[in-house]
Amino acid sequence: xxxxxxxxxxxxxxxxxxxxxxxxxxxxxxxxxxxxxxxxxxxxxxxxxxxxxxxxxxxxxxxxxxxxxxxxxxxxxxxxxxxxxxxxxxxxxxxxxxxxxxxxxxxxxxxxxxxxxxxxxxxxxxxxxxxx
Length: 132
Description:
Number of helices: 5
Largest sheet: none
Number of strands: 0
Radius of gyration: 19 Å
Structural class: mainly alpha
Distance between the termini: 30 Å
Order of helices and strands: HHHHH
Strand content: under 5%
């Protein structure tokens, strides 16, 4: 991860909110808002996720695990991760979803749906023991 020089009381890196605002401003000054509909942003998110997958397509598990040791591939992975995150954040902005709250709620639901193996509530009768 990259380091950022900060002053007293400043966060160690960009916040989700500061990056979200930069994306909003970036699109606004280019007058892209009319194109940033939920459908278009969901489609763009899917395309970028596919581009991330393409880096790993046809690799063995061992080759996939070593992708980040190749500087060119590592750069591509970081770029595609950034694209996926950017479109996800823009999508969330347009539809009014707080991604951190949504993730926290989903993790909590999954903790209930899929208890720790061996616990007294090992298998949820509604879903069995299948992962999400």
